[in-house]
Predict the 3D structure of the following.
Amino acid sequence: MTKTRKPLQKYRRVVIKIGSALLVDRKSGLKKAWLDAMCADIAGLKAKGVEVLVVSSGAIALGRTVLDLPAGALKLEESQAAAAVGQIALARAWSESLSTGQIIAGQVLLTLGDTEERRRYLNARATISQLLKLGAVPIINENDTVATTEIRYGDNDRLAARVATMVGADLLVLLSDIDGLYTAPPHLDPDARFLETIAEITPEIEAMAGGAASELSRGGMRTKIDAGKIATTAGCAMIIASGKPEHPLAAIESGARSSWFAPAGSPVTARKTWIAGQLLPAGTLTIDAGAETALRSGKSLLPAGVRQVTGSFSRGDTIAILGSSGREIARGLAGYDADEARQIAGKKSAEIAAILGYAGRAAMVHRDDLVMTGPAGARLDDGRDERKGELHA
Ligand code: GLU
């Protein structure tokens, strides 16, 4: 369990969720000093080679302050309008504050379908991955301006967990006005005990999550435990900590009270398990011996190695990859629709743009979206993969 609590710089990719009450004061608006300190913490982590993503709440809270809307519950269209006003200010504040540490911010607004539908999921993931590759910090929020009551996450705890699993993060930090998980709501029960580490989210742990959200934010302990289930199942550790002190990440590092949830496995394994576990593949790609060797050594499947395409599938659908003997050797998510795959099969990646009329992805199936499913022999010699038959991403 001690392994769960390790220095933040030991993590590779960290998602930090920031609750509205930390960033916005209902009277005076944005808490700039807090934000600047937070950005200094982020710069510190990035300087140590950690990739950082931020899920920032506060659009509605900031918008209603700017618009001077009365306290109390807002109608849907009022909160949508408040989000429109607040989000633009929020994004600018993040961008300005990060820029003092020479860090570039990129705004990403997601709706529920962007993480739940595979095509859109792949698309959102590609954009966010590209931002990280370019060294930018994605500043993510729900697109509250168009989200309706039925089709929304509604809270950024679960949104942050979905983002963390989407990008294969190894740590999710939930910062709010709650410093962690107690055995009972501490303001109601004097015997409530603080839990420092949670090895597994059992039904008993779930029962400890009371309701109680503050006026500014939507999430309480319930949504944090839900987030914990999403994250830890996919191999991502999670911390619940108070964001109230300035420099909250530095505070965690120096031992401030926080609850740590242990991950269940490694993110890559969990995601590939998800791909391998998809229902019947929508089509097949038969590949040549050279491509088979490439796949077995952890590479992506390029169009040049594809001999035949069957079935009708869309980009993002699960497809089976057949070796030259005709037996299934892998499964993966299609990088192209079936029609496009037929057109570029056997062609060099450099020819794709001329054939399709647009610059597509280099890979027919990206290695991150690929799982070796058989036959035996798929294991890498250098032992990098944890599971038999699974390629290392
Ligand atoms: N997306 C909401 C906002 O930016 C926050 C949701 C939440 O607090 O969990 O205002």
Summary: Residues 20, 57-61, 141-142, 144, 155-156, 217-219 surround glutamic acid (CB under 6 Å).
